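Anyone? Bumping this.
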Amino acid sequence: MEKTQRPLSPHLQIYRPQLTSVLSVTHRGTGIALVIGTLVLVYWLLAAASGAEAYASAQQLLGSWFGRIVLLGFTFALFFHLCNGIRHLFWDVGLGFELKTAYASGAAVVIVSITMTVLAWSLAYALRGGA
Amino acid sequence: MKFRTPLARARGLGSAKSGTHHWWMQRLTAVALVPLSLWFVASLITLVTADHATVIAWLHSPLVTILCCALIVAIFYHGQLGLQVVVEDYVHTESLKLVSIVVAGFLSLLMAGACLFAVLSIAFGS
């Protein structure tokens, strides 16, 4: 198709980042990250199905410092996408569009998703007994 | 001016012939994933120190098998729908857009199949 030189509307980098826009972009980012992260789920389930030896090496890899960083990122991405997704579902039924509400729910999403991540990992470490 | 026939208006399917199906399935899978993913993460936390036998015993329970299968279907369906939207928003070369959507769809299906195979082979295994 022939490219015509029309004036372009200002894009993302023109605007000052705001909580609402940053969360919107993060929702997409975490969504893509979670899709890539499902490779870990595929790997873990296939390892479990393959037998004790494969499972033990999968546990070792996921328990290494690198594995833990990936899982930590995955946990936060999941909780963020979950919380912000619920915020989107409210919008879908027409609730929470007022500017004040949108900012308050945005702040709540950040606080709750970080809290859930910390809680999940504290629980996991507590059950693990340190280490 | 009304260019659309009354039948087309009543069907409400638009030019893509699928209406709000994509949007609606994205919401439905999202709603399903709220309890399913919370349940799965909570389960994984309790399994953090579990050995292979414990994990197999956990996956052997019919309820766990069924919920895992539901989770897998919802995850990869939702992921595929999401990836399609992202591709449609940012890839503007028609051929590349089509190929990306098709490849993402095939990969999602393959990964979902691999997960379902793993869960079911454990569930039906000895």
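Late reply, but here is one note on the structure posted above: The helical segments of chain A are 19-50, 52-63, 65-92, 99-128.
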